Amino acid sequence: MNASLQNLRGVGRLSTDAVIGVVDLVEALHRRLSPAQVLLGQAGEERTHGIAALVYKSIRGISRLSGGALDAALGAASGLLALIPDASTARSPLQEAARAVLNGVLGDHLADSANPLAITMRLHVHAGDIPSSSPPSDDKLAVFVHGLCLNDLHWQAQDCDYGAALARDLGYTPLYLHYNSGLHISVNGREFADQLESLVQARRTPLKELVLIGHSMGGLVIRSACEYGAQARHSWRRQAGKAFFLGTPHHGAPLERSGAWIDALLGGNPLIAPFARLGKIRSAGITDLRHGNLVDADWQGRDRFARADTRVATPLPDGIVCHAIAATTGARAGSLADRLLGDGLVPLASALGRHADARRALRFPSSRQWIGYRMNHMDLLGRVEVYERIRRWLEHS
Fold first, then answer.
1. Which segments of the chain does DSSP mark as H helices, in order?
2. CA distances from 207 to 173, 204, 293, 322, 392 (A)
3. Handedness of CA 101, 104, 109, 114 (dihedral sign)
4. Contact, 130 vs 175, CB < 8 A?
5. What is the pLDDT of residue 254?
């Protein structure tokens, strides 16, 4: 009940933001379609003047006022219900999936506006949180990191549950990271590094082995965490022995680059330029996927919607044996689907760390690369063939 009210409160805030955003867009169109703009080609502001400006300002004010009243009412109700024990502590997969998508698309806005729908980073064992005061006692941990618009429960919703299988076959305790995938990858990477350090420091005995497994964006979060963990001299960096990257866009994803071109095309036409802002509501996490940003320097002080690749060349983490698993919808190597589509979202070259610039290319040895054929991006989350490859590498590498 309390969680439902919090969700409703978050939706209410987001709805208010959406109304104001639409009003801004309509006002910009109003200004752009004025006679001076259309007939004389005069460049101008995106705000109107006179009576029209007063109307738009009033709509914004009413929206903020009504949204604030709703938020206050729901906040008070939520505070009262917090005193009543919640009969159900189970997480709803459907609600969690919807929230994960919302965070992936608008997560930075949700966090900046303190919206209750914003996901706070946590480590989970299945559906339960891990308190930092009582970390897992097992000495072999496998930490799974999901991708954009997904959550930790997606690892257990596929045909093959990698965590359960590793626990059964090799004695690993699986942990699952849950995070706001709309934030910058470097922001999530730094916090993930800190959480791993807190987890390790809270243990009474040292870890025997720490394995990191990331799907899609999750692999970039792992690489970012390794970079920041090394800079901070975290102890977990010395205990992390292996990392597995499943369909990770090490050098970006074409769909985000397509979004950048759409932004440019829309922005180039003065009559439809206001619509370019629709493309720019996508989160910082999504724009980081254009080239595979890992650290703050890749985006700080730069236009995150710019097309140029300005990344710092960041190699694979020292001291960790890294493996790349890619997929292609094609039936064989070199097919058209293989070259153009990869797994439908990430090209093979990007997933395997290949780059025309030798400084950016990632040095995965051929013995630590594997390609799954007739597989798409989501198949990498739960296919028996993928698990068997991970298991063999853990046993023999």
1. 2-32, 35-40, 50-81, 93-112, 162-170, 185-201, 217-231, 236-239, 254-267, 276-279, 284-288, 336-340, 348-351, 384-396
2. 11, 9, 30, 19, 21
3. positive
4. yes
5. 77
Give the contacts of 193 (CB within 8 A, at least 6 positions apart). Answer: 224, 225, 226, 228, 229, 232, 234, 236
* CA atoms of 152 and 136, how far apart (whole Å): 17
pLDDT digits over 310-334, tens only?
888 899 999 999 999 999 988 776 6
Question: How many residues make up the chain in this entry?
Answer: 397
- pLDDT tens digits, residue range 250-273? 999 876 555 444 444 444 445 444
Residue with tokens 């955003």: 21
pTM summary value: 0.76
Q: Break the chain down into helix, strand, coil percent, rounded to 5.
A: 50, 10, 40
Q: How far, in Å, CA of 211 to CA of 221, rounded? A: 14
Strands ordered across the beta sheet of 140-145: 128-129, 122-125, 173-178, 140-145, 209-215, 240-246, 321-328, 369-373
- Reduce the DSSP state of residue 211 to 3 states and report it: strand
Tokens of 155: 């690892």
Selection from 5, 6, 384 nearest residue 159 by Cα: 384
